C-alpha cells in the first residue's frame, strides 16, 4: 500500500486528515524456533509484509481504532482504560497493552491526549509471521515519536513481550518483537535471548531466495498448546538445576544435556528440552555455515530443525509437515521448515530463483491434494524495522 491510499482510508474512516503514517514489519525466522523463551539463539529477519498505521491526534482523551482488515465498527476506549478486551475486540489488546505499559513509565505522563489510529495489515491473518508483535511495535514507535518518549527500541521490544505475557496471556519470548523493531534491510539478527547480545549478519543467499508458504490454517497461539510447551521446558529446567548451575536450557550444549538428561526422567519433558538444546546449537552452526557461504549445510540444518519440531516438540501438524516434506522433494531446494509457534501458520523454503515458480506450482498441488484447500506463497523481501514512512 502507498502512503496516499492509507491517508485516504484514514480520512474516509475518521472524517479528517491523518497526521503521520507508520509501518511495522512481520518477521520470518531462518532458524531457532521455540528457543527464545528457553534462553537460546534465534536468527530472524523483518519482512516487507506487515502492518501500516495512520495516526491523527485528538483533543480529548479518547482512543479510536479502526482496522481495515476486520469487518466492524471503530473501537473506542478511554486513554486510561487498561481493561483487557474480549471476543471480537480482542485484537485491540496489543495496542492497549503497549499504551498501558508506556504510560506507567517515568515520562508516561507525556501521553496526555487521545488519538485516532487507522490500521491496515498486509500480513496474512493467522500466518505465524508475527502480526501481534508487528502491532505492538507499531504502537510503541507511534507513541515514542508522537509523544517524544525517551525509550529505546530494545526496551519497546521488552514491553511488547510483556504485553503478550501479562496482558494477552501468552508466555512467549522476545524474538518476534525484537525482529520487528530491530530489523535491518537484507540482514538477519543473530540474537542471544539469554543475554540480549545481538549482531546483524547479511542474508547472502546468492542464486537462492526465501519463499514463505502459508498453510492458510489460522492459529491463535494463546489458545494453543504453546503455553504447555513453555511449562514443559520450565519443568525440565528445574530438574536439571538440581545438579547444574544454569538459568536457561540455552546455556547447555548437547553433550552436557546428554550427560545430565537422566535428571529429567519424563518422556515428554525430555523431548521438549532436547529440542530446545539441539535447536539452539543448530542455530549457532547455521549462522556459521552462512558466514562460510556453505548454503547446503545451512539447508540441512533448516531441515533438521523441522524434524526436531515435529518429533521432539510436536508443534507441526499435517499442514506444516505437508509443506516442508513436499518442499524437500523439489529441485533447487536447499531446505524448508515450519516457522513461528506452529499448529498452523507458515513455513519457509530456500529455493533457487530459477526454480521458484516450478516450486510453488508443485508444492501447491501437493498441498491441495493432501489438505483439500490451497496454500499461499509469498516472496520475502528483508526490510528495516518499524518506522515512520
UniProtKB/TrEMBL annotation:
What does the record give as EC number? Answer: 2.7.1.6
Binding of ATP occurs at: 67, 126-132
Task: Report keywords, A-Z.
Answer: ATP-binding, Carbohydrate metabolism, Cytoplasm, Galactose metabolism, Kinase, Magnesium, Metal-binding, Nucleotide-binding, Transferase
The residue ranges of the Galactokinase N-terminal domain are 9-56
Report domain GHMP kinase C-terminal positions.
Answer: 288-368
Compartment(s) of residence: Cytoplasm
Does the keyword Flavoprotein belong to this entry?
A: no
Active site residues of this protein = 176 (proton acceptor)
Binding-site residues, substrate: 33-36, 226
Superkingdom of the source? Answer: Bacteria
This chain belongs to the protein called Galactokinase
Lineage, uppermost ranks:
Bacteria, Bacillati, Bacillota, Bacilli, Lactobacillales
Amino acid at each position: 500500500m502507498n502512503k496516499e491510499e492509507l491517508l485516504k482510508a484514514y480520512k474516509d474512516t475518521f472524517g479528517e486528515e491523518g497526521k503521520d503514517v507508520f509501518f511495522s514489519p512481520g518477521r520470518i525466522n531462518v532458524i531457532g524456533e521455540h528457543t527464545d523463551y528457553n534462553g537460546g539463539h534465534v536468527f530472524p529477519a523483518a519482512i516487507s509484509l506487515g502492518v501500516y498505521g495512520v495516526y491523527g491526534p485528538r483533543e480529548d482523551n479518547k482512543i479510536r481504532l479502526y482496522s481495515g482488515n476486520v469487518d466492524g465498527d471503530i473501537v473506542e476506549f478511554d486513554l486510561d482504560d487498561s481493561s483487557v478486551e474480549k471476543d471480537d475486540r480482542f485484537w485491540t489488546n496489543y495496542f492497549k497493552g503497549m499504551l498501558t505499559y508506556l504510560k506507567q513509565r517515568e515520562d508516561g505522563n507525556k501521553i496526555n491526549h487521545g488519538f485516532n489510529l487507522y490500521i491496515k495489515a498486509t500480513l496474512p491473518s493467522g500466518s505465524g509471521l508475527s502480526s501481534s508483535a508487528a502491532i505492538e511495535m507499531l504502537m510503541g514507535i507511534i507513541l515514542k515519536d508522537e509523544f517524544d518518549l525517551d525509550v529505546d527500541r530494545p526496551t519497546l521490544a521488552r514491553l511488547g513481550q510483556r504485553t503478550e505475557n501479562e496482558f494477552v496471556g501468552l508466555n512467549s519470548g522476545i524474538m518476534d518483537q525484537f525482529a520487528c523493531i530491530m530489523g535491518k534491510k537484507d540482514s538477519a539478527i543473530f540474537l542471544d535471548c539469554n543475554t540480549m547480545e545481538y549482531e546483524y549478519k547479511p542474508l547472502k543467499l546468492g542464486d537462492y531466495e526465501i519463499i514463505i508458504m502459508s498453510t492458510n490454517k489460522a492459529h491463535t497461539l494463546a489458545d494453543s498448546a504453546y503455553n504447555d510447551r513453555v511449562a514443559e521446558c520450565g519443568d525440565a529446567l528445574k530438574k536439571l538445576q538440581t545438579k547444574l548451575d544454569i538459568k536457561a536450557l540455552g546455556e547447555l550444549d548437547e553433550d552436557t544435556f546428554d550427560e545430565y538428561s537422566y535428571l529429567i526422567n519424563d518422556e515428554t519433558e525430555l523431548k521438549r528440552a532436547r529440542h530446545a538444546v539441539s535447536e539452539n546449537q543448530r542455530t549457532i552452526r547455521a549462522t556459521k555455515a552462512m558466514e562460510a557461504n556453505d548454503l547446503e549445510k545451512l539447508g540441512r540444518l533448516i531441515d533438521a530443525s523441522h524434524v526436531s519440531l515435529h518429533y521432539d516438540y510436536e508443534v507441526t501438524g499435517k499442514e506444516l509437515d505437508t509443506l516442508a516434506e513436499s518442499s524437500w522433494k523439489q529441485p533447487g531446494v536447499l531446505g524448508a521448515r515450519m516457522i513461528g509457534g506452529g499448529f498452523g501458520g507458515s513455513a519457509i523454503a530456500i529455493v533457487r530463483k530459477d526454480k521458484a515458480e516450478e516450486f510453488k506450482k508443485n508444492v501447491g498441488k501437493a498441498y491441495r491434494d493432501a489438505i483439500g484447500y490451497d496454500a499461499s506463497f509469498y516472496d520475502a523481501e528483508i526490510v528495516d524495522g518499524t518506522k515512520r514512512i
